[in-house]
Amino acid sequence: MTHVRFLFLRLVLLTCLASPIPASAGIIVNPDVEVRSISISSLRNIYTLRQILWPNHHPIVVFVLPDDNPVHVAFAKEVLGLYPYRLREVWDRMSFSGMASAPIQVNDENEMRARVRATPGGIGYTSKDMVYDGIKTLRLE
Questions:
Q1: Whole-prediction pTM
Q2: CA angle 12, 14, 15 (to 5 degrees)
């Protein structure tokens, strides 16, 4: 019986650790973006530059923090399910081939919020799922 309990607890722990949505992550967009929620799959497509238009056919402008920023690392691994270096490889390949422009890198979360707020079609992420003035926060599906 103890062995079964151990396996069950291990399965629960692994499930929690493998959860793709950290409780504190926030996906922010410019207020003109007409969506209220986003799937992890769509978010991954946006950040791997496979989806470049919102459902209303307006361009998506992607903002990211530096590759070594802890918030970026957590977002890439926990939300997108990708290592930051893999994201960088995708961005380099897409931009060098002319298929898409690499995301716009900002220095910190304050700049992320300011740039998303000021850029039609802008999307970014923050370390906390909070309400910010002039920015819409998307619900993860």
A1: 0.81
A2: 65
